């Protein structure tokens, strides 16, 4: 998100070479899919509604969804804040470990398999629904987009997430993520013996044109990941990962790019027999940032999940 003005979230972007002469609604859908900072999910129908209602401007003028976009065109998307609030979302009793909370933040340990926020195909049974059960006052706060979420984890990734309990904290934490001031650490079990004890990788990250559900190590958005090997086995390595950027599927794409895909990652590395029933072996174990009120660095850490222990002890 570029900025928030009055009651709108404002997004500005330039046309990519591959988007020349494409429909405006199609370009917007692709942009929103590739935008890691988007605080809520938008369907194709909602995007078309925004265009028809004048919330999308091309070079400062309204257009139809079918409008073809030309080279050097500037597109601005204005999303009404009140249209993306959680007031209609249901509080559900879903288990989620609350690691810490105060008047400004909530730290949760998201279980593997739990979708973070409601979207198309997942209108309930998400982390947001669980948070509304544990913190019912969040439902009344109409200034929080997506129930205070400022970042996300994939459905199959477990671990630490921070949520904001008020608008001031939401703005501050969102800024810290945008400025890369939040430090994250992950535990992962990957295929193969890694020969280097530590290292890093920088690539572009972009959506795979042949499969929109996948990302690949190429594109305009730069992604940087550091790693440290903790222990090696005949066919696997137990490692720590330190993402310095927060791109979609970044760690999964980077480890696959290094020819050491994460165990259980059926999207990028296929099946991991006999460990399929344990799921993706990736967990966010440490999270550090500046507290939005006292501005002091705070850090939260959890141990590795039981599924890791099962494999490491086998």
Structural features, described:
The chain has 314 residues and is α+β, with helices and mostly antiparallel strands. The chain contains 6 helices and 14 strands. The strands form 2 sheets. Strands 6, 7, 8, 9, 10, 11, 12, 13 and 14 form a 9-stranded mixed sheet that branches. The chain has a 5-stranded antiparallel sheet with strand order 1-2-5-3-4. Strand 10 (198-208) and strand 11 (211-232) form a beta hairpin. Helix 1 (24-34) crosses helix 2 (44-52). The longest helix has 12 residues, at 167-178. The chain starts with a strand and ends with a helix. The relative contact order is 0.12. The model is unreliable at 1-5 (pLDDT under 50).
Short structural description:
The protein is of the alpha+beta class. It has helices spanning 24-34, 44-52, 127-134, 167-178, 250-257, 306-313; strands at 3-5, 8-14, 56-58, 61-62, 74-80, 97-101, 105-110, 158-164, 183-191, 198-208, 211-232, 236-243, 282-290, 297-301.
Poorly predicted ranges: 1-5
Major sheet, described briefly? Answer: 9 strands, mixed
Query: Could you report the average pLDDT, rounded to the nearest whole number?
Result: 85
Termini separation comes to: 45 Å
Q: Which outline best applies? A: globular
Annotation, overall tally of beta strands: 14
N-to-C SSE string, H for helix and E for strand: EEHHEEEEEHEHEEEEHEEH
Number of helices: 6
Cα gyration radius (Å): 20 Å
Structural class: alpha+beta
Strand content: 25-35%
Helix share of residues? 10-25%
């Amino acid at each position: 998100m570029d900025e928030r003005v009055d009651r709108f979230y404002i997004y500005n972007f330039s046309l990519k070479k591959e988007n020349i002469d494409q429909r405006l609604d199609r370009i917007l859908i692709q942009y929103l899919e590739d935008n890691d900072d988007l605080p809520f999910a938008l369907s194709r129908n909602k995007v078309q509604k925004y265009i028809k209602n004048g919330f999308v401007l091309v070079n400062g003028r309204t257009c139809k969804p079918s409008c073809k976009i030309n080279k050097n065109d500037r597109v601005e998307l204005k999303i009404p804040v009140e249209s993306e609030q959680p007031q209609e979302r249901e509080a559900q009793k879903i288990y989620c470990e609350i690691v810490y909370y105060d008047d400004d933040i909530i730290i949760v340990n998201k279980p593997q398999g739990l979708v973070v926020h409601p979207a198309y195909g997942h209108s309930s049974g998400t982390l947001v629904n669980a948070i509304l059960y544990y913190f019912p006052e969040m439902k009344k706060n109409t200034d929080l987009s997506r129930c205070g979420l400022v970042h996300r984890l994939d459905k199959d990734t477990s671990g630490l997430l921070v949520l904001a309990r008020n608008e001031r904290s939401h703005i501050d934490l969102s800024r810290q993520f945008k400025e890369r001031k939040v430090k994250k650490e992950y535990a992962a079990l990957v295929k193969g013996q890694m020969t280097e004890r530590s290292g890093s990788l920088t690539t572009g990250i972009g959506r795979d044109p042949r499969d929109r559900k996948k990302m690949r190590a190429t594109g305009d958005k730069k992604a940087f990941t550091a790693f440290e090997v903790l222990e090696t086995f005949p066919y696997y390595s137990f490692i720590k990962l330190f993402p310095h950027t927060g791109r979609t599927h970044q760690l999964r794409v980077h480890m696959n790019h290094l020819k050491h895909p994460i165990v259980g990652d059926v999207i990028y590395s296929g099946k991991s027999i006999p460990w399929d029933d344990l799921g993706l072996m990736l967990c966010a174990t440490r999270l550090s940032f500046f507290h939005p009120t006292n501005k002091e660095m705070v850090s939260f850490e959890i141990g590795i999940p039981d599924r890791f222990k099962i494999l490491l002890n086998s």
